[in-house]
UniProtKB/TrEMBL annotation:
Pfam families: ADK. This is Adenylate kinase. Keywords: ATP-binding, Cytoplasm, Kinase, Nucleotide biosynthesis, Nucleotide-binding, Transferase. AMP binds at T32, R37, E58, L59, V60, G86, Y87, P88, R89, Q93, R135, R147. GO terms for biological process: AMP salvage. Gene3D superfamilies: P-loop containing nucleotide triphosphate hydrolases. It comes from the Bacteria. Catalyzes the reversible transfer of the terminal phosphate group between ATP and AMP. Plays an important role in cellular energy homeostasis and in adenine nucleotide metabolism.
Length: 192
């Protein structure tokens, strides 16, 4: 199994790159942001709870997010592995993910691929995305900046944990989409 943690600040291209990795390696993507947005649209109790955090650019509490992830992993799938997009974002979640992958998939995280993009480009990309996506958290510069600050404050420790395990690889996230994908593919292929 190939289990990838796709890592990078909001606007770094995780969604786009996840799509290409999925096709290349027959993986299933689990995006906690997408799962929250789905629940918000359906107005489920989970969605209503998550909305109050998401619209301020804050993180949803760890336990709520982790329970949702476990539910998703329990669904049957014939994929070769998973891409975790948007999870883990804290050191608690990183430790949870190790346990969850062990218990639910009898496997382990293979690699943490980190897309590196400077802040100025992130803000520009997110403002542009907000114009078409209708995402409230992509439409105001202050909320966007808060999401980026939250990301660096809490997720730096996630990178540190994967570094300690020798599983952390940074890839430049600025450039042609296909070129960035090729660099990511090469890192995954090195695992075999
Ligand atoms: P994303 O689409 O990954 O940028 O996620 C959108 C929003 O959903 C984030 O700004 C958080 O409020 C929330 N969210 C997504 N994943 C997580 C997570 N792993 N832990 C806490 N909150 C999350």
């Amino acid at each position: 199994m190939i289990n990838i943690v796709l890592f990078g600040p909001p606007g770094s291209g995780k969604g786009t790159q996840a799509e290409n990795l999925i096709k290349k390696f027959n993986l299933k993507q689990i995006s906690t942001g997408d799962l929250f947005r789905y629940n918000m649209k359906q107005e489920t109790p989970l969605g209503i709870l998550a909305k109050s955090f998401i619209e301020k650019g804050e993180l949803v509490p760890d336990q709520v997010t982790t329970d949702m992830l476990v539910e998703e992993l329990k669904k049957p799938s014939d994929c070769n592995g998973y891409i975790f997009d948007g999870y883990p974002r804290t050191s608690f979640q990183t430790e949870c993910l190790d346990e969850i992958v062990k218990n639910e998939l009898h496997s382990e995280i293979s690699i943490c691929l980190s897309l590196v993009v400077e802040d100025k480009i992130l803000v520009e990309r997110l403002i542009n995305r907000g114009k078409t996506s209708g995402r409230k958290d992509d439409s105001e510069e202050a909320i966007i900046k808060n999401r980026i600050v939250e990301y660096y404050k809490k997720t730096a420790e996630v990178a540190e944990l994967y570094k300690q395990q020798g599983k952390y690889v940074e890839v430049n996230g600025v450039g042609e989409i296909a070129e960035i994908s090729e660099k990511l593919f090469a890192e995954v292929e090195k695992l075999n």
